[in-house]
Amino acid sequence: SRKNGRGCFDLPVQMTGYDMVHYSLSPSYDMVHYGHSNQLRQAKAMGDYLVVGVHTDGEISKHKGPPVFTQAERYKMVRAIKWVDEIVEGAPYVTTLDTLDKHSCDFCVHGDDITLTVDGEDTYAEVKREGRYRECRRTQGVSTTDLVGRMLLMTKAHHSNLDNSNYQQHTDNFGKGPKGHSPWTGVSQFLQTSQKIIQFASGKEPQPGDTIIYVAGAFDLFHIGHVDFLEAVYKLAEKPYVIVGLHFDQEVNRYKGKNYPIMNVHERTLSVLACRYVSEVVIGAPYAVGKDLLDHFKVDLVIHGKTEVFPDKDSSDPYAEPKKRGIFRTVDSGNSLTTDDIVQRIIENRLQFEARNQKKEAKELAVFEAMKRQVEGAV
C-alpha cells in the first residue's frame, strides 16, 4: 500500500488504493537517454505508482563529477518520461530506509549495475540488507559515458563504434581504468528489436475528436529543448495526438552537417517514444511533409519550432504543402537549447568528464574484484 498516503507532496486522490508504490533512483539521470527510460519502464511494471528520486548538482559533483545538465533541466526531463508518476527533487545520493518511508514507498528499484559513493560504498547497501531493493536489467548499447565519448570524438563512424579503432582508442582513454574494464561501464552494441519498440510505444490510435499534430526533425540526444517544444505542441489542442517524424541518419547528416546525428535513428526512436507528449513516431519520415503523409495520417496541424528550416535536396521548402493547406504553424517553446549546445558543454569540460569517468571505473573495478574474490573464496 501507499502507507496511508503519507508523503511530502500533495498527491492526486486516485493515488490511494494503489497496491505497490516504489522508488527508483538512477545514478544521476544526467543526459537522460533511452537506457534510463527503459529502466523506468521496467521499474513501473514492478508496481503501480513510480516515484523517481533525482539528485542535485552538488550531490552529483561530489560523488561522480560535473553533471552535463543542471538539476532543473534534469527534473523536467525525468518528469516528461511517461512511466513516471512523481519525482523527488534533491534526492539523497545514498538511498536509506528513511528515504523510502518518507515518500511512502514499498521498495527501491535500480539497474543491475553498481552505484558507489565517493568513498566507494554501495549506495543501496541498507535497503538491500532489509529486502526492500529490486533490480531491473540494464539496457544494452548505451550509457552516458558512451554518449559523451561520441560527442568528444565526433567521427562519422561513431554509429559503428565497436568496429572503429579510433573510437576504441578513445574509449580506452575516456572510460577505462589502469587495470581493466568495468563490466558496468562497458557498452555493447545496441540492437533494435520490434519487441523493444512495442514496449516503448503507446499503441493508441487517434480517437474521434483528437487533433492530429505532426512535427518532424532529428530529435538527436533527446533533451530538455525537445521536451519544452513537444509540451508546447501538446498544449495546442484539447485532445492532442502528436506524431513525430524522425529523419533517417543520412538525411540528418545532409542538413545538419558535421558528424550528426550523435544517436542513430533506432536510438532516437526510443528516446522520443518515451516522452509523455508523444503518441506515435514515424521512423525514417520523408524530409518534405507532402500530400501522401498528410492524407495518410489525416493531419490537422503541422508544427515547427523556432530553429532554422533547411531546404530539401532540390532547394524547395519542405513545408510547402502544409502551408498551402493553411495548417502550418510555428511554435516558440521559450527554450533555445540545441544539440550543438550540449556538444559544446561536453567539449568545454572534456578533461573533467574524462577524469570523472576514469575515477568512476576505477571504483567499480575495485568492487568487482572484491566480489570475485568473495565468490572464489566461497567455492
From TrEMBL:
<dbReference type="Pfam" id="PF01467">
    <property type="entry name" value="CTP_transf_like"/>
</dbReference>
<dbReference type="InterPro" id="IPR004821">
    <property type="entry name" value="Cyt_trans-like"/>
</dbReference>
<dbReference type="InterPro" id="IPR044608">
    <property type="entry name" value="Ect1/PCYT2"/>
</dbReference>
<protein>
    <recommendedName>
        <fullName>ethanolamine-phosphate cytidylyltransferase</fullName>
        <ecNumber>2.7.7.14</ecNumber>
    </recommendedName>
</protein>
<keyword id="KW-1208">Phospholipid metabolism</keyword>
<keyword id="KW-0444">Lipid biosynthesis</keyword>
<dbReference type="GO" id="GO:0004306">
    <property type="term" value="F:ethanolamine-phosphate cytidylyltransferase activity"/>
</dbReference>
<dbReference type="GO" id="GO:0006646">
    <property type="term" value="P:phosphatidylethanolamine biosynthetic process"/>
</dbReference>
<keyword id="KW-0548">Nucleotidyltransferase</keyword>
<dbReference type="GO" id="GO:0005737">
    <property type="term" value="C:cytoplasm"/>
</dbReference>
<comment type="pathway">
    <text>Lipid metabolism.</text>
</comment>
<comment type="similarity">
    <text>Belongs to the cytidylyltransferase family.</text>
</comment>
<feature type="domain" description="Cytidyltransferase-like">
    <location>
        <begin position="28"/>
        <end position="148"/>
    </location>
</feature>
<keyword id="KW-0808">Transferase</keyword>
<comment type="pathway">
    <text>Phospholipid metabolism; phosphatidylethanolamine biosynthesis; phosphatidylethanolamine from ethanolamine: step 2/3.</text>
</comment>
<dbReference type="InterPro" id="IPR041723">
    <property type="entry name" value="CCT"/>
</dbReference>
<dbReference type="InterPro" id="IPR014729">
    <property type="entry name" value="Rossmann-like_a/b/a_fold"/>
</dbReference>
<feature type="domain" description="Cytidyltransferase-like">
    <location>
        <begin position="215"/>
        <end position="307"/>
    </location>
</feature>
<keyword id="KW-0594">Phospholipid biosynthesis</keyword>
<keyword id="KW-0443">Lipid metabolism</keyword>
